[in-house]
Amino acid sequence: MKKLLMAIFLAGIFVGNSFAQSAENKSASVDLSGVRVEKGIVYLDGDRKEKADLYFPATMPADKKLPALVWIHGGGWSSGVRDAKREVSVCSTLARNGYVMMSIDYILSDRKQAVWPTNLWDCKTAVRWLRKNADHLGVDADRIGVAGGSAGGHLAAMVALTTPADGLDPQAPFGDVSCAVKCCVDLYGIADIGSYHDVTMLEKKFAEAPELYRAASPVTYVRSNSVPILICHGTADTTVSIQQSELFDQTLTRSGVVHHFEAVTNAAHTFDLQPAQKDLRPLVTDFLAKNLRQ
Question: Is 1's pLDDT higher than 80?
Fold first, then answer.
């Protein structure tokens, strides 16, 4: 009996450690060569559990500050983590190309309560935190962009397109620091939530409050002076229809906004910068070189 209990005890330790190692190493297959990562950064006030990870080029230049981007994960506004494989892949790729990356967690809907606009406020606070700490991070505070995929693409576009006059900037923390960004990369995001479907991050259904859905949609805030935007979307996406990005493209075109829409033939949802159908790294790094490095 003692041997049996000991075996069960050891098995429990092994299983527990295996789960811990699995969680810790869930992105172990991603190439992190040439990159330095700082994990678990506190960027929100109070006892918030959401954290951020910072990605730097392994060797930071001594004579200049680097441009930076906030990366926002997807997951239908109700799931996802800052260090999932896609997030690590995108952030490490861009860090190797000379950008400081900040991958963030943000408040998620538990499918029972609304989290809008707190989730957007978290994303804007990340921009503020990055700008406030730019000097000691080696970041150029005037060259900060935002990027994300799926729900993260939606939030990234909202960060990029909204201004203080729209009433969607958080009052705190760092209320005296700008949330503005220089450009946006939107991977298969939702441009018009009302034409997407009812979402639990909002407190009501579309039929009950169409104005709420309009206020939470990036297409609402497109102006002639909006920042440059790169949109990438797969033609085989059955989670978020490519029609969302086509609508976004058309709206940006009508307003004369500098942008590029890349339809990735046969690509489904949730790809990184290297989907099997097309290597997007040259496209993304060229866009960032033109709109964030200069």
Answer: no
